[in-house]
Amino acid sequence: MTRPEGSKNEDYEVKRNKILESLFQKLVQKKFREFPSFRNVAKLLNVSPPTLKHYFQSRNGVMTALLTHIEIKGEAYLEKILVPEGNGKESIYKLLQYITSGFESGPVGTIHQFGLSHGMGEKELGPSYLVHLFEPLLDAVERRLILHQKQNELIECEPRVAALFLISPLFLVLLHQKKLGGHKVRPLNIDEYLHNHTDIFWKAFAKKQKE
Fold first, then answer.
1. What's the rounded Cα separation, in Å, for the pair 38 and 52?
2. What are the domain boundaries of the chain?
3. Which candidate, 111, 76, 98, places its Cα nearest to that of 170?
4. CB neighbours of residue 90 within 10 Å
5. DSSP string over 170-201
6. Whereabouts does the entry annotate DNA binding, in residue ranges (predicted)?
7. CB 162 within 8 A of CB 188
8. Best label site of 27, 76, 117, 133, fewest CB within 10 Å?
9. How far apart are CA 53 and CA 19, in angstroms?
10. What is the pLDDT of residues 44-96, one digit of tens each?
11. Over the range 157-187, which residues count as b (16 or more CB within 10 Å of their CB) and which as e?
12. 74-205 CATH, one of 1.10.357, 3.30.300, 1.10.3470, 3.40.50
């Protein structure tokens, strides 16, 4: 019996994920410097354009699927954010240090650079970057801060506001120093910054303990 037109093979998702993982590894090797055209993606992966179209429809479809694939790969990284290390101020510093280490030693920074550079001003890819990369990170930080609120260490406030206060400056610093050449234009000691930023956050959000 022939397969109905438009139906999918049983191993459709397996093959699709294999293509995405191969693309991810290729782009990691190239440090996500650019995203190839649809035809060049097919060439890079050694598949035919019709095959690529079967799984992703278009270049934007490939990019959106790749962001989703990266989100799934990053779940273990985000799970670690949910577990406080130590109490209070020490935990906040270690959280910032952990995010920074991902930017500096792994592909995290390059992936966010890729998402920002291709998502800015794009009505489809911009929201896809937010949904699959930035918002999961922000949500994990929010949930970490909520735990500290429950431990009576942080003031009662909107967790999203506190999380943005905490990681937005860090993002700017890391992009400035690591991705925009700021280490040459105006170098900044990252570890000193993390300590200073932790101090500022703690002064603003720490709950005053009764003596």
1. 8
2. 12-61, 74-205
3. 98
4. 13
5. HHHHHIIIIISSHHHHS---HHHHHHHHHHHH
6. 37-56
7. no
8. 76
9. 12
10. 899 999 999 999 999 889 989 999 999 999 999 999 999 888 888 999 999 99
11. eebeebbebbbeebbebbbebbeeebeeeee
12. 1.10.357
Q: The tokens of 86 are what?
A: 């130590």
* Cα diameter, the chain: 79
Q: What is the dotted CATH code of the domain comprising 12-61?
A: 1.10.10
85, 145, 136, 82: which is closest to 108 by C-alpha?
136
Residue 67 host element (H or E): helix 59-73
For residue 85, CA distances in Å to 28, 45, 102 come to 30, 41, 17
What confidence tens digit (pLDDT) does each residue in 133-164 have? 999 999 999 999 999 999 999 999 999 999 99
Tokens of 61: 């479809």
DSSP-assigned beta bridge partners for residue 206: 154
The confidence score (pLDDT) of residue 211 equals: 47
List beta partners, residue 154.
206
- Name residue 188's amino acid: L
Integer Cα distance of 102 and 189 in angstroms: 17
pLDDT over 50 at 2, yes or no: no
76 Cα distance to chain centroid: 12
Same fold for the pair 12-61 and 74-205: no
State the Cα–Cα distance between residues 158 and 85, nearest whole angstrom.
Answer: 22
